[in-house]
Amino acid sequence: MSPTALDTVLTRDEWRSLEDAHHERADLLTADHRARAARAEKHPVEDFLFTYYSYKPALLRRWHPGAGVELSDAAAEPRAGWRWYVPGETAGGLRVDAAAFATDKPELFALCERMLRLTAARPAQFGCFGLHEWAMVYRTPEHRHAVPLRLGGRGTDDVVDAHELRCTHIDAFRFFTDDAAPRNRFTPTRETQPLMEQPGCLHAGMDVYKWAMKLGPLVPGDLLLDSFELARDIRVLDMRASPYDLAAWGYAPVAIETAEGKAEYVRRQRGFTERSQALRTRLLDALAPAA
Question: Where are the beta strands (DSSP E) in the chain?
């Protein structure tokens, strides 16, 4: 029985099985990060989802059935005290009050819905080639990561000089160096973000995880973890296509300064676009009971 279906009642055995499976899957997804954190070690690729988005593994591990699903025989569980959980229609049942979430957080709910809906409806663009990471180190000796540049400083600058920058994502563009920002075709801002976000953007794809996390109990656990996995996979391409030399961490470069590298980047970009669009549709469906 799917936890994403509306007006579904799950028996105690059913929802406990789903919860246990969620915990197991989440623990596997965060195991390496948690082990590194215990050793005070850093990873330039895999730690990003826990530092940039700042969501702890424990939050990813928390399972919700999603809006429109009632959990039988759950009133004595700790989740009975969680915010937005209310008694259901069955004896001892619990459900998420989606309408109350939307009422309590109207601006957040409206932002998430608008970003998901407008991004999903916009045509994808595939001409950026991941140059946002290159623009973040353009003509500067300071780098965001303690990792050497694959082509060196001069070679990296030459790649930027040979291309048009086409970044549409404010949270990538805001890290451009002062010399790189004027070279960008667009000038994304926080105010124009809903109008500029497009599904071909890798960062917009990673942000599906952010929207899922912000929507909390409205989002079924499997959808949250699917969004996290997409963000994790995108992050790998994002850094493999970057100017950094990640050979020491086992990552071969996607050399976007070459025709072959560009073709590989776009091929993978299109695959991530399909995955992110499917997740946006599922998230919008999850919002429907609160709309």
Answer: 8-10, 69-71, 85-87, 94-96
Is 157 within 8 Å of 150 (Cβ atoms)? no
Q: What is this structure's pTM?
A: 0.94
Element of type H or E holding 197: none
* Mean pLDDT, 10 residues at a time, the chain of 291 residues: 58 97 98 96 93 93 96 95 94 94 96 97 96 96 84 97 97 96 96 95 97 97 98 98 96 98 98 98 92 74
Three-class HEC string of 30-70: HHHHHHHHHHCCCCCCCCHHHHCCCCCHHHHHCCCCCCCEE
Strands 85-87 and 94-96: antiparallel
Residue written as token pair 């303690």: 146
CA dihedral of 172, 242, 134, 118, whole degrees rounded to 10 = -30
Torsional sign, CA 203, 204, 205, 210: positive
* 133 and 210 Cβ atoms separated by less than 8 Å: no
Amino acid at 256: I
- Domain positions in the chain are 8-290
273-285: b (≥16 Cβ within 10 Å) or e:
bebbbebbebbeb
